[in-house]
Q: What sequence folds into this?
């Protein structure tokens, strides 16, 4: 019986650690402060930025890829919008540059 509480505690700590990681990444994607950050039961990550940017991301893999795209295409300034399509990502950087990148 003592083993069960340790397993539950261990799992909830890893969830908290992952949430902290995603919040940190979302700051770099916004290029501004984060107004709200949540992950729904469907696994989608939703981020609303102080600059009114809004992102609904399918999962943490997409969030990590957004971080890479931000660095490569937006010079780390963040996105004003970002959409994931079935075969490509469409996004606009904060400096109004538009891109369509195949998956």
A:
């Amino acid at each position: 019986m003592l083993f069960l509480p340790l397993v539950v505690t261990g799992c909830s700590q890893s969830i908290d650690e992952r949430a902290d990681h995603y919040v940190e990444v979302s700051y770099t994607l916004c290029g501004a402060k984060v107004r709200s950050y949540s992950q729904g039961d469907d696994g989608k990550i939703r981020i609303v930025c102080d600059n009114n940017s809004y992102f609904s991301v399918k999962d943490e893999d997409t969030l990590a890829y957004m971080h890479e795209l931000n660095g490569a295409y937006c010079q780390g300034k963040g996105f004003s919008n970002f959409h994931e399509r079935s075969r490509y990502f469409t996004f606009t950087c904060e400096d109004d540059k538009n891109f369509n990148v195949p998956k």
